[in-house]
UniProtKB/TrEMBL annotation:
One Pfam family, short name: Sigma70_r4_2
Alphabetical list of InterPro entries matching this protein: RNA_pol_sigma-70-like, RNA_pol_sigma-70_dom, RNA_pol_sigma70_r2, RNA_pol_sigma70_r4_t2, RNA_pol_sigma_r2, RNA_pol_sigma_r3/r4-like, WH-like_DNA-bd_sf
Similarity remark: Belongs to the sigma-70 factor family. ECF subfamily.
Protein source organism: Pontibacter arcticus
NCBIfam families: sigma70-ECF
Recorded GO MF terms: DNA binding; sigma factor activity
Annotated protein name in UniProt: RNA polymerase sigma factor
Taxonomy, superkingdom: Bacteria
Length: 171
């Protein structure tokens, strides 16, 4: 493919890139800039394109990668926090509460106790599912229908949620 043919094809596809660019950026001007930068990279790196492959997909990939790279640059640049204005909070207890391992130990103990209170017919499929078995594997292992397995796991989750409602976050 000659340089002129390549340029013509890239320019023909350029208009179809704008909706995807807008979906990524959610801003009309940023979308135009992203398409323009994509076109510049595509024309600059013409030799890297393999003739016979999907040019439109190649351009979408360039555009997506450009967007991701720009996004990462922006977030890294803006992640620097000037801590001087937060020094007033350094010694105040009421603003920051940290959790320790003791708290998580209580939570784990409560979860294990709640699981132990499940009936055997609900606990067994639930624990098999928890350790990684698929519904079909559990059904075969317990020699029960797959619908029964799903129902018992659902009931176990519902009962656990009720028993552990003290840990639910309030909105």
């Amino acid at each position: 493919m000659t340089a002129v043919e390549y340029s013509n094809q890239v320019q023909n596809i350029a208009q179809s890139l704008w909706p995807a660019a807008f979906k990524l950026t959610r801003d009309s001007d940023d979308a135009k800039d992203l398409v323009q930068e994509t076109m510049l990279k595509a024309l600059t790196n013409r030799t890297k394109f393999k003739a016979g492959t999907n040019l439109k997909a190649w351009l979408y990939t360039i555009m997506r990668n450009t967007f991701i790279n720009n996004y990462n640059k922006i977030t890294k640049r803006s992640s620097h926090i000037d801590s001087t204005e937060y020094l007033q909070y350094l010694n105040t207890d009421e603003n920051y509460i940290t959790q320790n391992k003791g708290t998580s130990t209580f939570v784990i103990n409560d979860i294990n106790e709640a699981i132990a209170h499940l009936s055997e017919e609900h606990r067994t499929p639930f624990m098999l599912y928890y350790v990684g078995y698929k519904y079909l594997e559990i059904a075969e292992k317990l020699k029960i229908p797959i619908g029964t397995v799903k129902n018992r796991i659902h009931i176990a989750r519902k009962e656990l949620k009720e028993m552990l409602k003290v840990y639910q976050q309030s909105a």
